[in-house]
Write a structure and sequence with these properties.
By secondary structure, the protein is of the alpha/beta class. The protein is built from 7 helices and 15 strands. The longest helix is centred in the last third of the chain and has 14 residues.
Length: 282
């Protein structure tokens, strides 16, 4: 399950959770995995973490074993499948840890990230509150569209995505390459989203919301998600090299994803359906 694709030792992304909506463990999801959204991007010796779905639990144990005590976390948004792993992310319980957590979708909605995380750990939902987390956690709310510089030599471009409650897409540039994380976005049929085209322009890797097929999409209008077909259209227009299908529907089993992966590779050679544990290098 732990694949490594291509060869760039300094810049890579590892997928820790690739499902959307809710976890779906079981015999029919073993190869692609059942955990929800979480991706780790390494820029040299420094890391950025995107989303804290249930895949973040395993990542947290690895970071603890490695003695990692700090990091920067960027949320696409705060729906449960993207933050449900936060209370189980082991490093946030360690007093020596320091994490910056960023979100770009809450500005202008009368909300802030710390309050949302407190709500997630309200005693009616979770047995301990945010005060049980002994790490130093600093929450940053920004407006989607901002350009951030979270680490030396790293440029992080952001943009708003069309999703209920809003969401944020990201482009990470480092060492002359670009990895994009564009999940939870509903496209408009027959149109290409200009914000996404700007974010993925010439990118090496585009992790994209491929929850549905074009045939299914008509039945799920308003759900806030896209298709692998639309991902291909965007990547072709933007000159992006590799599409990585992500946020797989919980009803999608391994056999279906295998078939979709074959179609995807035919339509945009070198593209793949993301699998839990996969490491991808530009």
């Amino acid at each position: 399950m732990y694949d490594s694709i291509s060869a760039s030792p300094d810049f890579w992304v590892k997928l820790w959770g690739v499902r959307g909506s809710l976890p779906c463990p079981g015999a029919q999801t073993v190869r692609y995995g059942g955990n929800t959204s979480c991706a780790e991007v390494m820029c040299g010796s420094e890391r950025l973490i995107f989303d804290l779905g249930t895949g973040a639990r395993a990542l947290g144990y690895v970071l603890q074993d490695q003695g990692v005590q700090e990091g920067k976390i960027f949320l696409s948004h705060t729906h449960m499948d993207h933050i449900g792993g936060f209370p189980f992310f082991k490093p946030v319980f360690l007093p020596e840890s320091r994490f910056d957590i960023y979100a770009g979708h809450l500005v202008g909605q009368g909300l802030n990230l710390r309050n949302v995380l407190c709500g997630l750990m309200d005693p009616t939902i979770f047995p301990v509150g945010l005060e049980a987390l002994r790490a130093k956690l600093t929450c940053h709310d920004f407006e989607a569209g901002a350009i951030l510089h979270p680490l030396p030599g790293v440029k992080l471009s952001t943009g708003p995505l069309n999703h209920p409650g809003r969401a944020t897409g990201y482009r990470v540039e480092f060492a002359g390459h670009a990895i994009c994380y564009i999940t939870d976005v509903e496209h408009v049929d027959g149109k290409l989203d200009e914000t996404i085209l700007r974010l993925i322009d010439g990118a090496d890797i585009v992790i994209y919301d491929t929850m549905f097929t074009d045939e299914e999409f008509v039945r799920y209008t308003g759900w806030g998600h896209s298709t692998w077909h639309q991902g291909v259209r965007l990547c072709r227009e933007a000159g992006a090299r590799r599409l990585v299908g992500f946020h797989h529907a919980p009803f999608r089993d391994d056999e279906e994803l295998d078939a979709m992966a074959c179609e995807l590779d035919r339509e945009h050679p070198g593209s793949i359906m993301g699998r839990e544990g996969m490491v991808i290098r530009p």
